[in-house]
Amino acid sequence: MYVQRFLIELFFRIDSPFRIFDRYMQEKQQPIHVESRKEVMSYLEPFMLNEMSEYLKPIDENWQPSDFLPDASRDTFFAEIRELQDSAKELSYDTVAVLIGDTITEEALPTYESWLTMVDDVSRNGQGGWMKWVRAWTAEENRHGDLLNKYLYLSGRVDMRQMEISTQYLINDGFEIGTGHDPYRNFIYTSFQELATNVSHRRVAGLAKQSGDKLLAKMCGVIASDEARHAKAYISFIKKAMEVDPNEVLVAFEDMMRNKIVMPAHFLREMGMNIGQTFGHFTDAAQRLGVYTSVDYVEILKDLINEWKLESMRDLNETGEKARDYVMKLPDRLIRVAERMKIPTMEYKFKWIHG
Question: Is 95 an active-site residue?
Answer without folding.
Answer: no
